[in-house]
Write a structure and sequence with these properties.
There is one protein chain. The chain is of the alpha/beta class and about 350 residues long. The chain is built from 9 helices and 18 strands. It is globular, with a radius of gyration of 20 Å.
Length: about 350
């Protein structure tokens, strides 16, 4: 099989021919159709986080495809021919206090796709049957890929923010994560503000339901949002700490900052005095659970969300990474396709065809 492999943190990914892996006990072998490119994949490939993966490995945690073979043991109703997603949470123990209270994403024994387990930048990948998630009919594989991480991550962030129909929600970063956070916040009925330095992303934010947009290169987003009364919740999806600090500064009294993005620069300055007197909350929100992802897929199947993506071939992985980093990517999300595209997609919005 063809796969994009990280051999060294200081080298581009290598497109290699590798043996097709075998599913073990409790595992399924998936023929990958699509896989999104998440900024986490870039951090992984460059070893930018405090806890690093161990090369060689295959990134990719937004994989979607069809089960070809199953291993031994309990398959939870899965069989060859079923289309599934292989999310970031590739494995959790299922018995710890976090798993037993609906917080499996906090499991200390977890293994992550494309980080601790070879991921879906490949024609085949192995996942644990207990943790892959069925993709329903009516959701295309190209749409399902970004929803598998960007979607479920921002769905969870909006959920923990407590956003309601009377809330003002500010989304800092309107790209791959942010453009979906805007939509989930709008589903709650909240009024949404989008903040980004990319004019094209801000225009998309308006199309997706944001009522206000602010570009930090042109005006102070803190003053602008405070002028609206302050944000009841600010969701920071950007990859620079300054955006998190601006998001915090935009909060109304009693507001909550939900930290979602994971900048390589792992430091955030928060003023204690204003936090205490303002009764402000600071929450970290990691990806959602399997059940959250099922809900994300159902919202999309019902036509309530739209995924903005451009398709690429796997051999374009390094050029795609550079486009994400320099802001020249033609859509909020890039999706690698491992096989020819179907005639039509479901509820998404592909903004370009596969590059050739």
């Amino acid at each position: 099989m063809r796969a994009a492999v990280v051999r060294s943190f200081d080298q581009p990914l290598a497109i290699e021919e590798l043996p097709i892996p075998e599913p073990g006990a409790g595992q399924v072998l998936v023929r990958i159709e699509t896989c999104g490119l998440c900024h986490t994949d870039i951090h992984a490939a460059r070893g930018e986080w405090p806890v690093k993966p161990s090369p060689p490995f295959i990134p990719g945690h937004e994989g979607v495809g069809v089960i070809e073979r199953v291993g031994t043991g309990e398959m939870y109703g899965l069989e060859p021919g079923v289309r599934v997603a292989l999310p970031w949470l590739g494995y959790a123990c299922g018995v710890c206090r976090y798993c037993n209270t609906g917080r499996e994403t906090l499991c200390e024994q977890q293994l992550n796709m494309g980080y601790g387990i070879d991921g879906s930048f490949a024609e085949y990948a192995v996942g644990y049957a207990r943790h892959v998630v069925r993709v329903p009919d009516g959701v295309s594989s190209a749409d399902a890929a970004p929803l598998t991480c960007a979607g479920v991550t921002t769905y969870k962030a909006v959920k923990v923010s407590g956003a309601t129909s009377s809330s003002l929600v500010a989304v800092f970063g309107a790209g791959g994560l942010g453009h979906l956070a805007i939509q989930y916040a709008r589903i709650t009925g909240a009024s949404v503000v989008a903040v980004d330095t990319n004019p094209a992303r801000l225009q998309t934010a308006l199309e997706l339901g944001a009522e206000h947009i602010f570009n930090p290169l042109e005006e102070d987003p803190i003053a602008a949002i405070q002028g609206l009364g302050g944000a009841d919740a600010a969701i920071a999806t950007a990859v620079v700490p300054a955006a998190f600090e601006q998001a915090f500064g935009s909060l109304a009294r009693g507001g909550m900052l939900v930290c979602v993005g994971l900048p390589a620069d792992n430091h955030l300055e928060i003023p204690i005095f204003e936090t205490v007197l303002g009764g402000l909350d600071l929450r970290g929100s990691i990806v959602g659970t399997r059940h959250d992802l099922e809900k994300v897929f159902e919202l999309h199947r019902r036509g309530l969300t739209r995924v903005e993506y451009a398709e690429r071939g796997l051999d374009e992985v390094n050029a795609s990474i550079e486009q994400v980093l320099d802001g020249s990517a033609p859509a909020p999300r890039l999706v690698f396709r491992m096989e020819p595209a179907p005639d039509a997609s479901a509820n998404g919005h592909a903004v370009s065809a596969i590059a050739t």
